[in-house]
Structure formats: C-alpha cells, structure tokens
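dude i think i finally got it to work??
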Amino acid sequence: MSEDGPKRQRPNVLITGTPGVGKTSTASLISERVGLEHVNVGELIVQHQCYEGRDEDLETNVLDEDKLLDVMEVILDKAAEDGTGIVADFHMCEIFPERWFDLVLVLRASTDVLFDRLTKRGYNEKKRSENMEAEIMQVILEEARESYAPEIVHEVPSNTLDDMETNAKRVAEWCKHWEKNNA
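look at this
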C-alpha cells in the first residue's frame, strides 16, 4: 500500500500460522461476517506465478517475494480506494510491510489436531515433521511478534469449529471498533 495513498476506511487483517491451523477457513468466515475481501495469498501466488522454482523435498514452490509484494500492493491500494478492507491468509507474515495490516491473528493448533490435519492433506513425512516442529517452536508467532507492533498481534486457538467461530466473532467486534475509531 502506498504511503501517500488514500486513508483506509476499513481495516486490513492478516491471518497467519503454521500450515494446517485453519487460516483459509477462518479468513473465509471473517470475510463473510465482516464484509472484508478475502485474499488467499497461496492462491494469489499460483494465479500470478509468484515463484522462482520448486523445492521437490518439501513438494512446494519457492516464493518470489518481490513479485508477490507487487501483486499484493495493487490489491491493497484498490481496496483502500474502494473503501473496503481485506482479510489475507498466509503462513508467512514477516515478508509483508507492517503498514499493510491493522490486526495480525496468529492461529495455533495442538499437535495432535495439526498432525491429523497435515496427514489428511497428504503431506509427506518431511513436510509434516517440519510443520509440526514449526508449530511446537512457535516459529510463526515469533515472526509475527518480531515483524509487527505487539498490540496488533494476537495468538488464538484454532483446534475446533467453535474456536473458528469465536475467532471470527472477535475479529468482527474488533473491526467495528477499528472503524469507529478511524472514521
């Protein structure tokens, strides 16, 4: 988002966490409840070919961060111009400029729940192990805390559908307050 662009009328929210914690489902629910545009960053990467190769061991593309940031900036500028906000979901948070987001929600899942979700997705042993270790070591949470102001980073559980509902409800309330305070 350009520094000199229009003042936003609606907030931008980042939903982040280890793969398998429920980012896309939570972001979709928030989008429906709050009326923010859902930006699935993983789909955006594929759609705009924001990758520079493939990591066969992890069965994933290698991200071209610069290209992704260019694509995202256009989306965020348009949302600001249109008076809308976005809810983005992605497993990396440290690559985005701090000014882009008003709230960063870090979803956390217990290891047994996460293991089952990753297994159901068909992750190979190496990819599943790396993601399990990242969750145990709180890698994404620490990256969020290092990349954004502490008051906008919130760690929340994401083990059940009830957790997802509660998180969406909390974000909806937060958005109302943000809009009232930034009108």
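The chain has seven helices and seven strands.
im so relieved honestly
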